[in-house]
Amino acid sequence: MVRRKWQVCAAGLAVLVFAWLLIVSPGPAMGQPGPRERIRERCQAVLPQAQAEPVLMKYRDRLTTAREAMVKEERALRALLVADNSTRAAVDAQIIKTETARSVLTRARLDMLWELRSVIPATNRETAFRCAELLLLRRR
Fold first, then answer.
1. In the Cβ-directed half-sphere of 102, how many Cα atoms lie within 13 Å?
2. CA 128, CA 116: separation in Å to the nearest integer?
3. Predicted TM-score (pTM) of this structure
4. Angle between the 125-138 and 88-117 helix axes, to the nearest 10 degrees?
5. Among residues 73, 72, 64, 67, which one has the least CA distance to residue 99?
6. Cα 117 from chain centroid?
7. What is the average pLDDT value for the chain, to the nearest integer?
8. Do the beta carbons of residue 133 and residue 109 sit within 8 Å?
9. I need a labelling partner for 16 at 20 to 30 A (CA). Which of 33, 55, 104, 127 fits?
């Protein structure tokens, strides 16, 4: 019994020490780039800002509006699913609205990526597309 208590105390102490180390440990060493800086450097290398920025600006409002509409419809669907007095017809109608909102967002995203194709070299497109989407998400 005493041995079991000792094991539990030792395990608890180990967890506390590891938690403390996670909290107080510094991030990347001084002068070394962290994950965000590495992503930013990689994006700047493959995404020509001067050509891509007008495309991103053109689609930013459309993407933001479509994303907000999709979130609104998904929340409405979730509310119907949780509510006691919902009918199957109301849920089905909301499912259609949610799918439509998702399709609008997907269409806006793909329109932007299609236009970006004209300013990004074929060898860098996959990485550049990810970078463009990260830029849009960060600026919301």
1. 9
2. 9
3. 0.63
4. 120
5. 73
6. 22
7. 78
8. yes
9. 33
pLDDT at 9: 55
- 16 is written with which tokens? 């506390």
Sign of torsion over alpha carbons 64, 70, 73, 75: negative
Q: Which amino acid is at 37?
A: E
34-70 tens-digit pLDDT: 666 776 777 777 777 788 788 888 888 999 999 999 9
Label residues 94-133 b or e (16+ Cβ within 10 Å = b): beebbeebeebbeebbeebbeebeeebeeeeeeebbebbb
How do residues 60-76 score in pLDDT, each as one tens digit? 899 999 999 999 999 99
Which position has the token pair 């020509």?
48
